Amino acid sequence: MRFEAVIGLEIHAQLLTESKLFCGCSTKFGNPPNTNICPVCMGHPGVLPILNKKAVEFTIRMGLATSCTINKYSIFARKNYFYPDLPKGYQISQYELPLCSNGYLEIEHQNQRKKIRINRIHLEEDAGKSIHDQGNFTLLDFNRCGVPLIEIVTAPDIQTPEEAGIFLSEIRQIVKYLGICDGNMEEGSLRCDANVSIREAGSNILGTKTEVKNMNSIKNVVDALKYEIERQIEIVSSGGRIIQQTLLWNADKQIIEPMRTKEESHDYRYFPEPDLPIVEVNEEWLNVIRENLPELPSIRKERMKSQYNIPDYDIEILTTEKEFADYFEETAKFTDDYKSISNWFMTEILKILNEQKISIKEFPIKPEYLGELIKLINNQTISGKIAKEVFNEMLVEPGSPSEIIKEKNLIQISDEKIIEEIVQKVIESNQKQVQQYLEGKDKVFAHFVGQVMRETKGKANPSLVNKILKEKLDNLRK
Amino acid sequence: MIVEKVENYLKRIQDKKHLNAFLEVFSEESIQRANQLEKKIHNGESVGKLCGTVVAVKDNIAIKDKKLTCGSKILENFTSLYNATVIEKLLAEDAIIIGKTNLDEFAMGSSNENSAFGIVKNPYDEKRVPGGSSGGSAVAVASEMCDVALGSDTGGSIRQPAAFCGVYGLKPTYGRVSRFGLVAFASSFDCIGLIARDSISLAKTLNVISGYDLKDSTSSNQKVPEYDSIIQNLPKDNITFGVPVEFFNDGLQSDIKNKIFEIIEFLKSNSFQILEISLPHIKYSIADYYLLTTAEASSNLSRYDGVKYGSRIELPQSIKDLYTQTRDEYFGNEVKRRIMLGTFVLSAGYYDAYYLKAQKVRRLIQNDFIDAFNKVDFIISPTTPTTAFKIGEKTDNPLSMYLSDIYTTSANLAGLPAINIPIGFDSNKLPIGMQLMANFFKEDLLLQMSYFIENNFNKNKLGN
Ligand SMILES: [Zn+2]
What we know:
Distance between the termini of chain A: 81 Å
Shape of chain B: globular
Helix content of chain A: 25-40%
CATH topology of chain B: Amidase signature (AS) enzymes
Bound molecules: zinc ion
CATH class of chain B: Alpha Beta
Number of strands of chain A: 16
Radius of gyration of chain B: 21 Å
Number of strands of chain B: 11
CATH superfamily of chain B: Amidase signature (AS) domain
Largest sheet of chain A: 9 strands, mixed
Strand content of chain A: 15-25%
Strand order of the largest sheet of chain A: 2-6-7-10-1-11-12-13-14
Number of helices of chain B: 14
Number of domains of chain A: 3
Helix content of chain B: 25-40%
Largest interface: A-B, 29 and 44 residues
Largest sheet of chain B: 11 strands, mixed
Oligomer: heterodimer
Strand order of the largest sheet of chain B: 1-3-2-4-6-5-10-11-9-7-8
């Protein structure tokens, strides 16, 4: 029997608002435990939630980016369960009537385009963090408690782990482009759970599904899904039955383990949150959000292709991260040699980001200076080789390239007379090589170039050096 | 003279300590504050609207750095980190807060017998209950231990004890007064309101505590009238009182029925219209009220789990033990009963049959009132079916206890304002209260009518 997998994803993205969803506490990551808290997010007696409008706006942005219906009226609901890192004993979430519903995202896989439906995007608050393994105690950090999250729930339209990986990276790219989430899966600001089942290929019947959690990278998601699908196929093929359960991906061992199921199946007793009125998204507000929606990756790609006339391959790389595209376009304000910017970016800059494990935001050379550097090459003030030197200098000593050139006296020598003199000198003091050249060994030409460059500390205009050398040597041949 | 008044009140509190109205008294602080206010007046500085008004606060309303017990063992040693909005407003207008009053645990009860810190006694007959859940506040006012008391009203918790103790009690429209800092029992029902010995004190204080609050998204931005300055401006023409037929049935004590009929005659003689009306769904109000309030309560009380604050059982073996043993040990029986009922109401498989249906009935009851207020300005009824009952009389029969809220719960279901006006005494010399309900945000009208009855009916008829 041939099987196919049916996969649905639940993606949680932590929103980049300044303050929490229902109180004024900071959302800053990495503060000492229990410093970003107040009576409201700690669920003290008598407190009430106040909805963060920015978080609603961010959720709507995501809805618009994925062609969702933005519901004019939506309601918050209480999801009731006891857990130590949930101070109120309920999470304020959305159940019936989420902010966004019925959207989709198109992904491209093996040159095929495919629509993945998005059932809903809703807004909710995050819980705190339980830190176990502290002897007999569990420690609690409530800094994260109340930070806004959106939950994106897809229809079970995904059929392979690869598709899941592509979908997730698209979502990651979109949230970053929209500026609503940093997309960091390792730190947990973007989390993905998957519902997986298998069925006979072509069948319409859904099999029993399992829920896979704890996959904190796109690679983990792909690996875990591969593993889980194989596991299910193996069970069914040998006549077994799939048990509905929650599983955890163990990335170290590359295996899936059942979650310790101390907790019985939950009855969350959802009911409308009486402390918050119905959220109304009026047409006017929606239009403002729509008009100010940051450019989405697909649209930006198309625009950049037509605006800069550089190869598609370059555009693909430059738009993988929003910040890459921002850097490119910022640089393009200072030089119109777009291909050169792209070349510098793809070779030198990406290499440094990889080597130093830094983000483009931390990259020390300002776009303005890269643009200036390219201009200096193009107007022959410096050679490409010197430019590389200046570039390296700027990495450690941020400053404008012209200043560095002036300071280090690196301006290119383009005076033919001066170069002629040096060439003459080099020819005179390298008679052995001249002899070889005259005998037809053209390769030694490079030796002469190198010598001239050494004499000029690399500052001689290379094309002039070539031209003059060739003239002089060829004259000797005659 | 403020200091003297505070000292007198403190002495009354001390003398009548056995009534158990207060859980905590701020003796030194209130005298100190009285001194400061007198100095302010002496120096000709401007003072607030409630300068020198002595207020008692039900102990389910948060005051910064003060205990907030809610009458429960689970919060016995809990101190609030912040002020409720109403407290901020009272202090800003130079009121003096004299102490925290006793209540049924988490405001659940109609007799004040559910307080973890002892029952409260009715000053008219100490063998009887003062009503609940704001029993301590009603007794504090009735026994002249303060000028005004803050209470909370989820299904009658201000009006019923006000009726039992012969004082005025106002439950405002839902959203009129910020709930921020009121410990939630049933969030869509809870209202902070007032108890006082006269209508003008209610009006003055309501003026101060009303209004939109950024910290409470369910508070209303309806304009707040100057209740006290317009209290005498009762429009006398075309005022109609509705008398719901459903409210005058068998369970009603005859003394109370007669008194209400007497006042109806008085109103007629003052050329007010009386119209018999029907509220067809009102018979479901008690059932509906208990389904919905317990559902909300089961969720609202989840936070008392022993993890972050409040009482916690010693050395639990597991997190589950921590929860169950803490809650078992420190919650009282009535609270447990309501948490269980509410959890059931919201459970998968029962939600539609109970919670959802109850929400629909709530809407029907609201519509009954909307229809009624198209025809009448007030709805008149008794506040309670009986006068104050004996301590212990109903503790074994929760259902009969719940029925003492029969006239009051519907105002909370609908979100309407309602007032208790004391109108006399029964054959046992126990106070009788009547209830007036008015349309949304018509507190001004309620207070005007209350003032009118106070000055034209009570003054003539009540020797007391
Ligand atoms: Zn907070």
